[in-house]
């Protein structure tokens, strides 16, 4: 069996799209499972739109997902001589021809066809020029493109790994441009030449490329190349089943990275966009994905990009992350708030390691940790409505003042001692511990949701807890108006 060789070939004309990342992952999984090679080709022949910042974003995104490629990166802009040589071969074989039609002329004919209700297609008039006319116009310096001379009869067919047999009538295909007037190749032409030169055995890409496949197959045949196998993946759809776009939310991989999605979670999530594992298990390690991935289990129907599912899955991975590792990931988010330095001081690191496990269970993204951990670093400026409701009940001010005095008297401030103090006070007052726990949480955090009260109190420490309780008492005595500070 020949070695499997696949590629991902993004254009650096925009930030790395999650759809392109999914395609890269499927190629990478296929190659790794088959013991093959995964190559990266940068299709940078669009000189106006290609930007270094987009290329860097593509490279950073693939590295973040740990989708490392084999060999050197292939740049199309460095292979112009190869494309020109192959284009010349097509010209000499009579399978390509120069077209001198101006963009204005082509647009006029296009509009005329549309007015008649006919699908616009090049009318092949330059294909009918005599050799003498072509030579004369070239001598005159008229700009021209090169077009492929499409067979006028018959059909082209191929078996798609995902979709089965697909056929196209040649009469429906136009004489498409293969080399632009500036000498640069078009997508279809460069793609075929490169895939052949790189020995690509399988082209795994989005279904929006199906219409390119018959044109590329004709080029393979004309140039004498053996075509690869094709697998066209389903498009990514939004929850409303329309094509995924910015109106559905973030579409660039880097946006999810900044949000605090873990790369392992993103890989797991992207793998399930179109591929349906036979055991229906959704949480899978990278090793499991490599072992189980099969293009035969990819369905042709559109794959829903469900943000809520991604957030759920990311939460699973966050909870599985060792505290020391997670704390390190949180540093840039907390440093941005001014809560610690990057890198943290020893004291900041010790405190961070105490805070992290208390927010870990409720986090779905790293960014969410900022809100969840805020009260560990900042005294609440106000109380939310639920917290106010708890604080403003009769007798709470006296209760919190007494609790603050008892806490202040503790010589050591552990989870066990804090809990014993609260429960002892409740017993003496003949009340449920919850009647103290809830207003205490409100006073310390400004909200009613959060981790175990006794654990968060132990992390906050005696000074913070006593100070916040007494400020809540002062706020209540002032008529429960103004800020909490």
Unreliable spans are none
Largest sheet: 3 strands, parallel
> From the alpha-carbon coordinates, what is the Rg to the nearest angstrom?
32 Å
Give average pLDDT, whole number: 96
Helix content: 40-55%
Shape: elongated
Counting DSSP E segments of at least 2 residues, the number of strands comes to 12
Give the distance, in angstroms, between the N- and C-terminal Cα atoms. 73 Å
Per CATH, the architecture of the domain at 80-188 is: Alpha-Beta Complex
CATH topology of the domain at 80-188: Glutamyl-tRNA Synthetase, domain 3
Number of helices: 20
Name of the CATH class of the domain at 80-188: Alpha Beta
Structural features, described:
The protein is mainly alpha-helical and 485 residues long. Among the domains are: 80-188, Alpha-Beta Complex (Glutamyl-tRNA Synthetase, domain 3); 322-376, Glutamate-tRNA synthetase, class I, anticodon-binding domain 1 (Helicase, Ruva Protein, domain 3); 379-477, Arc Repressor Mutant, subunit A (Orthogonal Bundle), CATH 1.10.10. 48% of the residues lie in helices and 10% in strands. It has helices at 18-33, 52-64, 80-92, 103-115, 131-139, 187-197, 213-223, 253-259, 263-271, 286-292, 307-320, 323-336, 346-360, 368-377, 385-391, 396-408, 415-429, 434-445, 453-460, 462-477, and strands at 5-8, 37-42, 74-75, 96-99, 145-148, 155-160, 164-169, 177-179, 202-206, 229-233, 236-237, 303-304. Strands 1-2-3 form a 3-stranded parallel β-sheet. A 3-stranded antiparallel β-sheet has the order 4-5-8. A two-stranded antiparallel sheet has the order 6-7. α1 (18-33) links the parallel β1 (5-8) and β2 (37-42). α17 crosses α19. ATP binds at residue 246. Its EC number is 6.1.1.17.
């Amino acid at each position: 069996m020949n070695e499997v060789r696949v590629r991902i070939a993004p254009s650096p004309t925009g930030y790395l799209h999650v759809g392109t990342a999914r395609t890269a992952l499927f190629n990478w999984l296929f190659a790794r499972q088959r013991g093959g090679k995964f190559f990266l080709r940068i299709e940078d022949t669009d000189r106006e739109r290609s930007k270094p910042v987009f290329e860097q974003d593509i490279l950073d995104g693939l590295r973040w997902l740990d989708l490392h490629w084999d060999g050197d990166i292939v740049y199309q802009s460095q292979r112009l001589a190869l494309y020109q040589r192959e284009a010349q071969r097509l010209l000499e074989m009579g399978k390509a021809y120069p077209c001198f039609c101006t963009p204005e002329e082509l647009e006029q004919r296009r509009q005329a066809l549309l007015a008649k209700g006919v699908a616009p297609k090049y009318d092949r008039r330059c294909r009918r020029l005599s050799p003498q006319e072509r030579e004369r116009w070239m001598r005159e310096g008229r700009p021209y493109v090169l077009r492929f001379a499409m067979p006028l009869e018959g059909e082209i067919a191929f078996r798609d790994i995902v979709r089965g047999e697909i056929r196209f009538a040649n009469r429906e295909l136009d004489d498409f441009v293969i080399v632009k007037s500036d000498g640069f190749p078009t997508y279809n032409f460069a793609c075929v030449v490169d895939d052949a030169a790189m020995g690509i055995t399988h082209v795994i890409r989005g279904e929006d490329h199906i219409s390119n496949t018959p044109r590329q197959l004709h080029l393979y045949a004309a140039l004498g190349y053996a075509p690869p196998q094709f697998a066209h993946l389903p498009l990514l759809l939004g929850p409303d089943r329309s094509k995924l776009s910015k109106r559905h939310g973030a579409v660039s991989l880097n946006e999810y990275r900044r949000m605090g999605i873990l790369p392992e979670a993103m890989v797991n999530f992207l793998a399930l966009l179109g591929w349906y594992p036979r055991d229906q298990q959704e949480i899978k390690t990278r090793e499991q994905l490599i072992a189980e991935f099969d293009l035969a289990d990819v369905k042709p129907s559109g794959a829903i990009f469900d943000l809520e599912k991604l957030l759920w899955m990311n939460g699973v991975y966050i909870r599985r992350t060792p505290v020391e590792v997670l704390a390190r990931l949180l540093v840039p988010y907390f440093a941005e708030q001014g809560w610690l330095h990057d890198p943290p001081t020893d004291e900041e690191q010790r405190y961070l390691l105490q805070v992290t496990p208390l927010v870990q269970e409720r986090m779905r993204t790293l960014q969410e940790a900022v809100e969840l951990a805020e009260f560990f670093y900042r005294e609440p400026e106000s109380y939310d409505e639920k917290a106010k409701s708890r604080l403003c009940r009769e007798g709470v001010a006296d209760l919190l003042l007494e609790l603050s005095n008892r806490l202040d008297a503790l010589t050591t401030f552990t989870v066990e001692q804090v809990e014993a103090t609260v429960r002892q006070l409740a017993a003496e007052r003949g009340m449920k511990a919850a009647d103290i726990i809830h207003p205490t949480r409100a006073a310390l955090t400004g909200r009613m949701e959060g981790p175990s009260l006794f654990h968060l109190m132990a992390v906050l420490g005696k000074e913070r807890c006593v100070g916040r309780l007494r400020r809540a008492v002062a706020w209540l005595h002032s008529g429960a108006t103004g800020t909490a500070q």
